[in-house]
Design goal:
The chain is α/β, with parallel strands linked by helices. The chain has 8 helices and 10 strands. Helices cover 41% and strands 17% of the residues.
Length: 269
């Protein structure tokens, strides 16, 4: 019964905010027909909307660490579709996503209008994709990739695909590694992972009925890359760095964490 009460409170707010997102995306699409919207502008609009989306979901976003002061390639472990909303709420970002997301109802179109880059597994378009990411980094526009290539249950970190680092190495760009941890009552949250054959709507339905939990975003020390660096060695080092933080047992307190404005404030049920 309590779960349905939570659902009745959260679902209308979420649907209303999705409508706001559709209106924003339509405005960007129509405006681009005559005056192309800059990617930086799209990133800021996306951050605004994702902050609101997070406020509709049962998670408090807690950031640990300082945001980079320049454009960087962001790398994070991947647990759920929630990762996009969480990370996009703390900074203006572009995203690299699997091609299947483009076919998701509503969400796929919104992602495309936000400037998301889509990767098709086994398509051989790695060089073109690397060039697109490099162009964004040169403009100082941060871009997020999930180097595991798939989601996990959050208990471990899979091998990082080294080819996704090519754009950063070619441009001697900064890399910002991140570790995501979803926590419920001081334990790993088993509701957040979006894995296997799970369906987006069913997963969302379960989340909207659940009590509020926490998601920790650990910003780890930035890495300055060099074109002579080994991609494999760098990927392995970054994977180890993220894994160590994922397996850490530190407890986040209000003294050392920054809570994203507007996220989780009105969700106490």
């Amino acid at each position: 019964m309590i779960g349905y009460c939570r659902l009745a409170w959260r679902l209308p707010r979420l649907l209303l905010w999705v409508l706001v997102g559709l209106l924003l995306a339509c405005w960007v699409s129509l405006r681009s027909a005559t005056l192309p919207a800059s990617l930086a502008h799209r990133q800021k609009l996306t951050q605004f909307w994702l902050r609101g989306l997070c406020a509709c979901l049962p998670y408090r976003v807690q950031r640990l660490g300082e945001l980079p002061q320049q454009g960087a390639l962001w790398l994070a472990n991947h647990i759920s579709w929630l990762d996009i909303a969480v990370l996009g709420s703390i900074a203006p970002l572009s995203f690299l996503s699997k091609a299947e997301v483009r076919r998701w109802p509503i969400a796929g179109w919104l992602a495309e209008q936000a400037g998301t880059l889509f990767i098709q597994r086994g398509s051989g378009d790695g060089q073109q994709l690397s060039q697109q990411i490099a162009e964004r980094l040169e403009l100082g526009l941060p871009t997020l990739v999930f180097p595991e290539g798939t989601t996990t249950d959050g208990a471990s970190v899979r091998t990082f695909h080294a080819r996704l680092l090519a754009s950063a190495l070619e441009r001697n760009a900064l890399i910002q590694p991140l570790a995501l941890r979803y926590r419920r009552q001081q334990q790993r949250d088993t509701l957040a992972p979006f894995i296997g054959d799970d369906d987006l709507l069913r997963h969302l339905w379960r989340l909207l009925q659940a009590p509020v939990a926490d998601v920790e975003v650990h910003l780890l020390p930035c890495r300055q890359t060099c074109s002579t660096d080994s991609r494999r060695a760098l990927a392995a080092s970054l994977q180890q760095q993220v894994t160590q933080r994922v397996h850490g047992h530190s407890t986040v307190t209000t003294a050392d964490a920054a809570v994203t404005p507007g996220v989780g404030i009105a969700q106490r049920m």
